[in-house]
């Protein structure tokens, strides 16, 4: 049986994918439930409404920003540092594309 965290992840991933494809307004809780493979009422039990789903995505975004800030160490070589920043930024945008879409 999936844990609450597993279910939250399924719902958030479905929400993020749908927002990326259709936009925030067109992403309904019914579509999210279908994509996540859960009952629509489960979404409301876990997140209250679509706005709380968005808040959760923003929280994940901010957690990633904090993690990345702690990971970056200046190497002293500009090419190495800029390459790390560019690769990290590319991954960051890809992982948070739903928020960039909104």
Automatic annotation (TrEMBL):
Matching Pfam families, A to Z?
A: TetR_N
Which SUPFAM superfamilies does the entry mention?
A: Homeodomain-like
Q: Which UniProt keywords are present, listed alphabetically?
A: DNA-binding, Transcription, Transcription regulation
HTH tetR-type domain sequence ranges: 5-65
User: Record's InterPro entries?
Assistant: Homeodomain-like_sf, HTH-type_TetR-like_transc_reg, HTH_TetR
Q: Which molecular function term from Gene Ontology is one that the record holds?
A: DNA-binding transcription factor activity
Leader sequence range is none
Which residues does UniProt assign to DNA binding?
Answer: 28-47
Official protein name in the record: Transcriptional regulator, TetR family
Tell me the organism: Lentilactobacillus kosonis
């Amino acid at each position: 049986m999936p844990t609450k965290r597993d279910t939250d992840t399924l719902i958030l991933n479905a929400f993020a994918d749908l927002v990326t494809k259709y936009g925030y307004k067109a992403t309904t809780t019914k579509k999210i439930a279908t994509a996540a493979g859960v009952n629509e009422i489960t979404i409301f039990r876990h997140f209250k409404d679509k706005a709380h789903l968005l808040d959760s995505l923003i929280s994940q975004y901010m957690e990633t920003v904090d993690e990345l800030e702690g990971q970056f160490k200046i190497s002293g070589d500009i090419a190495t540092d800029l390459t790390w920043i560019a690769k990290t930024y590319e991954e960051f945008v890809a992982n948070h594309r739903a928020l960039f879409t909104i």
